[in-house]
Amino acid sequence: METVQIITADGTALTAKKFTPTSTIKSVVVMPAAMGVKQNFYEPFAEFLAENGIAVLSFDYRGMGESIPTQYRNSLRGFDADILVWAEHDYNSALKTAKEWQPDVPLLIVGHSLGGQLPGLVPDNHLIDGMLTVGCGSGYWRDNSPQLKRFVWLMWYFLVPLYTRIWGYFPGKKMRKVGDLPKGVIYQWSRWCRSPEYFVEKDGSPMQTGHHKIHKPILCMSFTDDEMMSRRSIDSMHDYYSNARVERRYIHPKDVDARRIGHFGFFRPQFRNTLWQQALQWLTTAPQST
Predict the structure, then answer these.
(1) Which CA distances in Å does 270 have to 45, 85, 196, 260, 277?
(2) In angstroms, what CA-CA distances link 147 with 34, 136, 221, 266?
(3) Which pLDDT does position 151 carry in this prediction?
């Protein structure tokens, strides 16, 4: 694993990591994170892919993980970013960096949650040859899982406005929810999660996204015990990819001899011989068949 720096089109420095196979490289994967998750969480899966001939580029969005500038390490107050900036600059720059790094192999996405939502907002999404989404669904609160729905209305309508106003950013670490997020990110995410369309402008009108521009294959891996995403939220998000060939696998933990998978479990090494093998098989076959 090699730590590198990505410089975005607007001059922002992001910390990224390259996982390079020692064998012949079959493809390159960009691995964008879920909301509030650091790229380090995905390292075991990235190493597994590299062991099997797939190069991986992971990165932290600006204001997250190792991409937080030194002066904002203790507080994100005053840090300027929103989700559209993450998509249009950070995610897009990661795609271009991966393509420049490995120009002769398919470029794939492994997108966890938010990482699978954003390709429709990425300007150069024509570079994508295939996508694996994991636990990816709409964040619209009424479509959340039943156990989450009981809490999120309080979060979006009360806690986010109150605490963000007080702290100047969302102090998720103190609340043990999501993690610290820049003010622009949490306000935009809150607006999206309060709308049935999810992707909306500041005035609440539906956003014109580019999900329909993606014509390549997508494998959606979701889980019956996901504590955040319901089947309805997962399906509504993948319906945005109207011109892609979407294969949907809705997996029960018993299907892989597990007690629990949840929203984050897929990336844990205990699934190396089950879920990871399913993902590897798809990543090494489906995109090349188009």
Answers:
(1) 11, 34, 35, 11, 12
(2) 19, 17, 20, 20
(3) 86
CA nearest 5: which of 80, 71, 59?
A: 59
pLDDT tens sequence across 99-128:
999 999 999 999 999 999 999 999 999 999
In whole angstroms, give the CA distance from residue 97 to residue 66: 18
Task: Give the pLDDT confidence score for residue 176 in this predicted structure.
Answer: 79
Contacts 24+ apart (CB under 8 A), 199-206: 199/120, 199/121, 199/240
Q: Is the pLDDT assigned to residue 290 strictly greater than 60?
A: no
Q: Residue 181 is which amino acid?
A: L
Distance between CA atoms of residues 269 and 275, nearest Å: 10
Question: Alpha-carbon torsion 159, 161, 165, 171, what sign?
Answer: positive
Taking the C-alpha atoms of residue 231 and residue 144, their distance in angstroms, rounded to an integer, is: 9
Which domains can be identified in the chain, with CATH numbers? Answer: 2-75+85-139+209-285 (3.40.50.1820)
pTM: 0.95
